[in-house]
Write a structure and sequence with these properties.
With about 325 residues, the chain is an alpha/beta fold. The chain contains eleven helices and 14 strands. Strand 2 (about 25-30), helix 2 (about 45-50) and strand 3 (about 55) form a beta-alpha-beta unit. It is globular and about 60 Å long.
């Protein structure tokens, strides 16, 4: 068993799943000859050929729209949006067709489409290559959304999404692509159940709910608070954003009596608001403090890469936010 990066876990899983299922094909900008801007698709063209690894025009609406027709005739498309920031031209195809076509046809047509989106900030990408826009799709029935925070889940959630009836959006965190490594057994089909959050760190004082890169920031903050303040933070990695695993979240909050939600997207309209509302509704009598959100600012992501550290929550900010949540 060898340590591999998050991006290598994605690449390996794509190789394995495409070899397993001949109905799969991959389409996206620069995904073939170039191997993807992050090299997530390197080697796939050489292994599977140009009929299954397709370099598309620069048209996200085309990428998403043609996958609808392909799914209707029995394919299992694996489209890539080069950066999540550019998913908006495909919004109509995703929301009106991909997400709703099974419902519209009373189950006649499945949409087993897994759409991968490199997503999030912290890589010096500036305003148009750093956005966290997952909340735009939270109000869309029919979609599944996953956001892995670890190397095993990068592989496991991708495999689960590909094999599901779909459709799904796979938010791959760019900051984590090469900044983390972990063991991933070769020859073993690692699968992470969709819809199940992970209690990554147990604690009895405060529940911290997070995902993606912020999961690692929150874990570091939790360790600091335990060492410096004796505050034991229970950290929940959501892993699946739609549907959210509220049973795990609510059980933890009922135990600790306090909840802090951490994500890098802007606070207003972010998924933290939905989580906070459900906690307030279902755990009102267990809460000993108001639900707190630690998020990005209500602005666009900074245009200057040098400013992104001021926008994204860091360990100091998360630790201070949790520390400010009353514990007595």
């Amino acid at each position: 068993m060898a340590e591999i990066t998050y991006i290598d876990a994605i690449n390996r899983t794509l190789h394995e799943e495409m070899a397993r299922d001949e109905t799969t094909f991959l389409i996206g900008e620069d995904t073939g000859i170039y191997g993807g801007v992050f090299k997530a698709t390197r080697g796939l063209l050489e292994e599977f050929g140009p009929e299954r690894i397709i370099d598309s025009p620069i048209s996200e609406s085309f990428i998403a729209g043609m996958c609808v027709g392909a799914a209707m005739v029995g394919c299992r498309p694996l489209p890539e949006i080069q950066f999540a920031d550019f998913i908006h031209p495909a919004f109509d195809q995703i929301v009106q067709q991909i997400a709703r076509y099974r419902w519209r046809t009373a189950g006649t047509y499945d949409m087993p489409i897994t759409l991968r989106c490199p997503w999030g900030g912290g890589v010096g990408g500036g305003v148009y290559h750093s956005q966290s826009n997952e909340a735009l799709f939270m109000n869309v029935p029919g979609l599944v959304m996953v956001a892995p925070s670890t190397v095993p889940d990068a592989a496991g959630l991708l495999r689960a999404a590909i094999r599901g009836r779909g459709p799904g959006i796979y938010w791959g965190n760019k900051k984590l692509y090469r900044s983390i490594k972990d063991d991933l057994p070769e020859g073993e089909e690692v699968t992470t159940p969709i819809g199940e959050a992970n209690v990554a760190r147990e604690g009895g004082d405060v529940t911290a709910i997070t995902f993606g890169y912020m999961y690692h920031v929150t874990l570091q903050a939790a360790e600091r608070l335990a060492e410096e303040d004796g505050i034991e933070v229970e950290v929940i990695d959501l892993r699946t954003l739609l549907p959210l695993d509220f049973p795990t979240v609510l059980e933890s909050v009922s135990k600790t009596g306090r909840a802090v939600i951490v994500h890098e997207a802007p606070r207003t309209g972010g998924i933290g608001g939905e989580i906070a509302a459900v906690i307030a509704d279902r755990c009102f009598w267990d809460l000993d403090a108001p639900v707190k959100r630690i998020c990005g600012h209500n602005t666009s992501f900074p245009a200057a890469p040098t400013m992104e550290a001021h926008y994204m929550p860091d360990v100091d900010e998360v630790a201070a936010g949790i520390r400010a949540t009353p514990t007595v």
